[in-house]
Write a structure and sequence with these properties.
The structure holds 3 protein chains of 3 kinds. By secondary structure, chain A is an alpha/beta fold. Chain A has 4 domains: 4-221, P-loop containing nucleotide triphosphate hydrolases (Rossmann fold, 3-Layer(aba) Sandwich), CATH 3.40.50.300; 246-316, no CATH class; 345-562, P-loop containing nucleotide triphosphate hydrolases (Rossmann fold, 3-Layer(aba) Sandwich), CATH 3.40.50.300; 585-671, no CATH class. Chain A is 30% helix and 23% strand. In chain A, strands 6-7-8-3-9-10-12-11 form an 8-stranded mixed sheet, sandwiched between helices. In chain A, a hairpin with a 2-residue loop joins β21 (561-566) and β22 (569-575). Chain A starts with a strand and ends with a strand. Chain B has helices at residues 2-5, 25-43, 80-116, 118-133, 136-147, 151-177, 181-187, 193-201, 206-229, 241-249, 256-285. The model of chain B is unreliable at 1-13 (pLDDT under 50). Chain C is mainly α. Chain C folds into 2 domains: 2-110, no CATH class; 113-330, MetI-like fold (Orthogonal Bundle). The radius of gyration of chain C is 25 Å and the shape is globular. Classes of the chains: A alpha/beta, B mainly alpha, C mainly alpha. The interface between B and C is large, with 41 and 51 residues.
Chain lengths: 672, 287, 336
């Protein structure tokens, strides 16, 4: 018998606009010890499902039909007391944001010890001992010290370990994981995923993992379900799902992710058109109908499509799954290669430093950065949070000023010139696309307004009619209808807002566009569309693009040159192909190894970084990476800054290990 | 892909706070009470009311409600209903004017402090701290007692007492808005400081300020009433609710209606403003 | 923490200094002059002019302020006590001591003789009111905020919004109308004298109710809002989904966090109470500090106004200091 069996579950919410079915009908079984992953973009009903299992839906949520049978007991009709005993005891949950999931005014120990006291009737001493044991199991050394601390005194990764420990304390049969690594750095994410795999073996707990990230799910789960508009559309063993995706939505999700080794010229991303419909708004018959490239009138929009078995425990909810073409719909040709032959340097950073005085100490956000961008090329700057990449982006745009070094953009040194003191020409030359789509547009003004304002301020257009025409042209360039110009930002989706931001950045015909994580806040399917758009306009206009990102998969896909940063310094730089192959900088190697690959046929070499990134207030004296480097040579790394080692084609590595030795490293990715 | 992206359906928009007002019952009750008073105040000169400042000596012997004086007369024989309606007119002229003036000063202070930070912020914040340390009534009493009771001086006092509080709210909002990328985007097209403050920042402070505005209207109504009661209100013979209560308290054991009716009038108007503010807060939290 | 406290104390002293100067500045607007007020309405103009001269009242504002501050700190003798003026003003404490607030022109006595008894009466009134406000508003606010939208929540919210809409004097009038005029249960005035026929506690009942009801409504609303906000926090969900009993979720997880914000507000109520007593004391003819301040302001008694303001401000800023320090102790994140 299955551990958890959801049968015909319907979840509704009462809103001011009437009752909405967030989950129209959902069935699923998870066996004891199984590891099941559920993917889908935001708004597909994943979190609603998790909270329905926990019986926690707030005052306006209800389950009008269906059953959730867990260990033979129906949770929908269970008494509050019976539910209380199960919660945290037999079923436990790990939350998306560990920072808010922990009580800020209680010590870690007090919060953790509550669980064994409530569920196993343990005494305080027993609870303390058990807690210390589980903290060791989640690899938090020195549990006594951790237990005395408050949540704000721990790092994000440590907090997530504490939340995982909290979930494991009562030895649950089922562990629900709600995007537990979203918001963590990729190297931290990798260690958390390792931990989950390890704990699953050790505790024999069944996992129900929900995420929007196929790569992450592929690392942890044996079986994967795909959820769309509150329904399960595909359910298959992990390897089978990636090898043979049957539902158009699953195919779309996979096609909008950059694959390892693929780039913008060989394998352009294919986006899913449209956006996820809001709860209760999806068509009855097939929720994906409006976005599906294979939808067939008369077939797909009639009866409710059932979940069918395709054989081999592979279920799919599609009326046409047998008729789908084997290959993806022909993708539009990728953007043309960057203008070849010209080595025209648009941006040249030489020893750029940005030091923030903090009391009597110094915070080294950027420490003697050197990099250059050629006209029409895409220069990607990668690194985890705290690497200083966003600070550098701000210095480029003049939103912050360097404290040392020179930064030539179109020949002028603007390192220490803030945007307020740059000339009109210098300001127009560097424009920026920001990370957060919700903050990028002024909520009080219609979205056409900043476009018109930019055109006027840069003297591109002066007459009213001219401005109108050019705003229309800009909207057309980012594939938005010109009627949208009168809409307020809150009426737009995240992807549409980023399109407006791109249009605004191109309004003044910039030479250099700085894009600071422009798609990291967007859903996967929308990400691909925005990236394609940005690259197309960039290639058409011959603009130089500095692309700041933490996503190595994306960088591999779109960059011409890459700079890898760690703790304010450049670790490695060079043409994109050289970065992703040996010789690697040890940090680049670890970063690559941490990338969750959405393809079980690719094996990744396992390298995990220990410890935390040091504070930029107190950086290591020698190599910045020495404290965490798995290939550290010895004292020389701690005391002496590493030499710059030139490979070929401008590929440089800052490391004490000789190039020849680095070149002999085994590649991180391997096809099996 | 891209041809169909224009078909991205826009998310359902949330209508602005004021347009959603009718969905809040609390806010509508408040608005109705306020509108009744506003209507009475506007219509006061046209209503068939006795002169509010004229004494009816005949009615003084039996000051209770009668066919001639619906709510009776005050200790000086003046018609209570007329004085209450005309008194409402005074409050509804002075309170919004005072709050608006306070808002002008407070917004400017808050914008400057939040935008420029540094010494501008320190100077303005320290000044605000000093004013805000005064118990409010004490501040009003000392001020009005020294500069004299008049409508203008009440406005001046309200500005001095309320602007620091408004400034604090605006400053806080500006500080958080300054982190938003649209401000950086404005710099990247060379907008001036004044433009950023007035056009980019101020309109986004609207939401919290609308609620606060209603609360302050209620509070200023309390202040005007209290000052009247303390004998620091509008100079006689102008009808002033607080002053009317004060005049009649000595006779409360004999003629309680003389102080109770203006009290009820005052309380109902304040309640109206407070309910409106409460409804607005609830609506803004429902987002 | 110690450095923070010292910094705050310094800031508090600066606030008092600036505020006392502002009060000095404002009294400049009032018609009439200190000399005339000191001598009374029946003094000859020549006498007034002479005193004016001797007290150097035509000196610039700043000079007079420094002189006043000098008298207050005991660095300078009170010029009014100079026997040469033949004013016959005598302070038993001498003419030069720390805390010399000078002479009250209104009461014709040293400010220190006038001030402290009245302050004691007011402290009694405000203290009882505060002792009623805190438990009442906490209880109601927590119960209402615990289950937003419940019947209890709606009842508490409605009562508290009505209470905050009734200013002290209006509440006074209404309560007097009910309990004094109609039911004849309580006295209408509270002179705190036993010979009035009413025991002292009955005289305190109405003034305390006026102060407490108005403020309790306000504080209960703040507590409710804070509790409601905390109840919606993810960590409360964590506590529920850990399988803790509801009692523990509320007592261990919600309450402490919900008290952080209202803590400051509750202490700031002391500031409000000082304002409230001015009105309440007038309604009930209560012999307290608030009515004295009102009388002093109407008369233009600068020494008394300055003294009363400084004390009111001292109480206000001191509670603010305590609330800020307490806040840091309550909230581990602010403790660093």
């Amino acid at each position: 018998m299955a551990l958890l069996s959801i049968r015909g579950l319907r979840v509704e919410y009462r809103t001011s606009r009437g009752t909405v079915a967030a989950i129209p009908e959902f069935s699923l079984e998870i066996g004891a010890g199984e590891s099941f992953g559920l993917v889908g973009e935001s708004g597909c009903g994943k979190s609603t499902l998790i909270m329905a299992i926990m019986g926690y839906m707030g005052r306006n949520g209800s389950v009008p039909r269906g059953q959730i049978i867990f260990e033979g007991q129906d949770l929908v009709t269970a008494s509050p007391e019976a539910l209380r005993k199960l919660r945290g005891g037999r079923i436990a949950i790990v939350y998306q944001e560990p920072a808010t999931a922990l009580n800020p005014s209680m010590t870690i120990g007090a919060q953790l010890m509550e669980v064994p006291i409530a569920h196993t009737g343990a005494s305080r001493a027993e609870a303390r001992a058990r807690t210390a044991q589980v903290l060791l199991d989640v690899h938090l050394p020195d549990p006594d010290s951790v237990m005395r601390r408050y949540p704000h005194q721990l790092s994000g990764g440590q907090k997530q370990r504490v939340v995982i420990a909290m979930a494991l304390l009562a030895n649950p049969a089922l562990l629900l994981l709600d995007e537990p690594t979203t918001g963590l750095d990729v190297t931290v994410e990798a260690t958390v995923l390792d931990l989950l795999n390890e704990l699953r073996q050790k505790y024999g707990t069944a996992l129900f993992y929900i995420s929007h990230n196929l790569g992450v799910i592929a690392q942890v789960c044996d079986r994967i379900g795909v959820m769309y508009a509150g329904k399960l559309v595909e359910d298959a063993p992990a390897a089978d799902l990636f090898a043979n995706p049957c539902h158009p939505y699953t195919r779309g999700l996979l096609a909008s992710l950059p694959r390892p080794g693929a780039d913008k010229r060989s394998h352009p991303l294919v986006a899913i058109s449209g956006v996820v419909p809001s709860a209760g708004r999806a068509p009855e018959s097939c929720g994906f109908l409006t976005r599906c490239p294979y939808a067939q009138p008369g077939l797909c929009d009639k009866a409710v499509v059932p979940l069918r078995d395709t054989g081999g425990a592979h279920l799919v909810r599609c009326a046409r799954w047998q008729d789908l073409p084997a290959e993806q719909v022909a993708a539009a040709p990728g953007p043309q290669a960057a203008v070849a032959g010209r080595t025209d340097i648009v941006m040249d950073a030489h020893d750029v430093s940005r030091v923030f005085p903090v009391g009597r100490r110094k915070l080294l956000a950027n420490d003697r950065l050197n990099m250059a961008a050629q006209r029409g090329h895409v220069l990607a700057v990668v690194g985890e949070s705290g690497s200083g990449k966003s600070t550098f982006a701000k210095v480029l745009a003049g939103l912050d000023s360097a404290t040392g070094g020179s930064l030539r953009i179109m020949g002028d040194d603007v390192a220490k010139i803030p945007v307020r003191r740059r000339t009109a020409k210098q300001v127009a030359a560097v424009q920026m696309v920001f990370q957060n789509p919700d903050g990028t547009l002024n909520p009080s003004h219609p979205v056409g307004w900043p476009l018109a304002r930019s055109l006027r301020k840069f003297g591109i257009a002066t007459s009213k009619a001219d401005i109108e025409a050019r705003v229309t042209a800009l909207l057309d360039m980012v594939r938005l209808p010109s009627s949208l110009r009168h809409a307020l930002p809150r009426q737009l989706s995240g992807g549409q807002k980023q399109r407006i931001a791109i249009a605004r950045a191109f309004a003044g015909n910039p030479e250099l566009l700085v894009a600071d994580e422009p798609v990291s806040a967007l859903d996967v399917s929308v990400q691909a569309a925005v990236i394609n758009l940005l690259l197309r306009i960039q290639a058409e206009q011959g603009t130089t693009l500095v692309f700041i990102s933490h996503d190595l998969g994306l960088v591999r896909y779109l960059a011409d040159e890459v700079v890898v940063m760690y703790l304010g310094q450049v670790m490695e730089a060079g043409p994109v192909a050289a970065i992703f192959e040996p010789p690697y900088h040890p940090y680049t190697e670890a970063l690559l190894s941490a990338v969750p690959v959405p393809d079980p046929s690719i094996k990744t070499k396992r390298i995990r970084l220990q410890g935390e990134i040091p504070s930029p207030l107190n950086v290591p004296a020698g190599c910045r990476f020495a404290t965490r480097c798995p290939r550290k040579l010895g004292a020389v790394c701690d005391t002496t800054p590493p030499p710059k080692r030139d490979n070929r084609d401008g590929h440089i590595i800052h490391c004490h290990i000789p190039l020849e030795q680095l070149a002999q490293t085994e590649p991180v990715f391997r096809h099996v | 892909m891209s041809a169909s992206t224009s078909a991205e359906t826009a998310g359902r928009p949330t209508p602005s706070l004021l347009r959603r007002l009718p969905t809040s019952r609390v806010a509508m009750v408040g608005l109705t009470i306020v509108l009744i008073w506003v209507l009475l105040a506007i219509l006061a000169p046209f209503l068939p009311l006795p002169d509010p400042n004229k004494s009816d000596y005949a009615a003084m012997a039996k000051p209770f409600s009668s066919a001639k004086h619906w709510l009776g007369v005050d200790p000086l024989g003046r018609d209570l209903l007329a004085r209450i309606i005309w008194g409402g007119r005074t409050v509804l002229e002075v309170a919004p004017l005072a709050v608006l003036a306070a808002y002008t000063v407070g917004c400017i202070m808050g914008l400057l402090a939040g935008y420029y930070r540094g010494w501008v912020d320190i100077a303005l914040s320290r000044f605000s701290d000093v004013i805000l340390s005064f118990p409010v009534v004490v501040l009003y009493v000392i001020l009005i007692a020294n500069i004299g009771p008049s409508a203008l001086n009440i406005v001046v006092a309200v500005v001095l007492a309320s602007a620091p509080g408004i400034s604090r709210i605006v400053r806080g909002l500006v500080l958080s808005l300054m982190h938003q990328e649209f401000v950086a985007a404005a710099y990247l097209r060379r907008e001036t400081d004044i433009f950023v403050m007035i056009v980019e920042l101020l309109p986004n402070c609207r939401g919290p300020l609308i609620t606060d505005f209603c609360l302050r209207l209620g509070y200023t109504t309390i202040t005007i009433g209290t000052l009247g009661f303390l004998g620091l209100g509008l100079p006689p013979p102008n009808p002033d609710w607080g002053g009317m209560v004060k005049q009649a308290t000595s006779m409360i054991t004999v003629f309680p209606h003389m102080s109770l009716y203006p009290t009820v009038a005052l309380v109902s108007l304040i309640l109206g403003f407070n309910l409106l503010a409460d409804g607005l807060t609830e609506l803004s939290q429902a987002d | 923490m110690i450095r923070y406290t010292l910094r705050r104390v310094a800031e508090m002293l600066i606030t008092l200094l600036v505020a006392s100067f502002l009060v000095f500045l404002v009294t400049e607007f009032s018609p009439g002059n200190v000399a005339r007020k000191t001598l009374g309405a029946f003094a000859l103009q020549e006498q007034v002019d002479l005193l004016y001269e001797k007290l150097h009242l035509n000196d610039p504002l700043m000079v007079r302020y420094v002189r006043w501050a000098g008298v207050l700190t005991g660095l300078q003798a009170d010029p009014l006590q100079d026997p040469a003026l033949k004013l016959d003003f005598k302070d038993p404490r001498g003419d030069r001591y720390f805390g010399n607030f000078g002479y009250s022109a209104l009461f014709k006595a040293p400010v220190n003789d006038v001030l402290w008894d009245r302050l004691g009466n007011t402290a009694l009134l405000a203290g009882i009111a505060f002792a009623v406000i805190v438990p009442l508003s906490l209880l109601l606010g927590v119960l209402a905020g615990m289950r937003v939208g419940s019947t209890l929540d709606r009842v508490v919210s409605t009562i508290s919004i009505v209470m905050t809409s009734v200013p002290e004097f209006a509440l006074g009038v209404i309560l007097v109308a009910i309990f004094v005029v109609w039911l004849k249960l309580l006295p209408g005035t509270s002179p705190l004298k036993t010979n009035s026929g009413w025991p002292i506690w009955t005289q305190l009942l109405l003034p305390v109710s006026v102060l407490a009801l108005y403020d309790a409504g306000y504080v209960a609303r703040i507590v409710r809002a804070s509790m409601a906000e905390v109840m919606a926090k993810p960590y409360v969900r964590t506590a529920v989904l850990k399988g803790l009993p509801w009692r523990q979720v509320i007592l261990r997880h919600a309450l402490r966090n919900a008290m952080i914000a209202p803590f400051t507000v509750i202490l700031l109520q002391i500031n409000w109470l000082i304002g409230g007593v001015v009105v309440t004391e007038l309604v009930f003819a209560y012999p307290g500090f608030g009515r004295m301040l009102l009388d002093a302001s109407l008369f233009g008694d600068v020494s008394l106004i300055e003294a009363a303001t400084l004390i009111a401000l001292f109480v206000a800023t001191a509670t603010q200091l305590i609330s800020d320090i307490g806040y840091r102790l309550l909230d581990p994140q602010a403790r660093r």
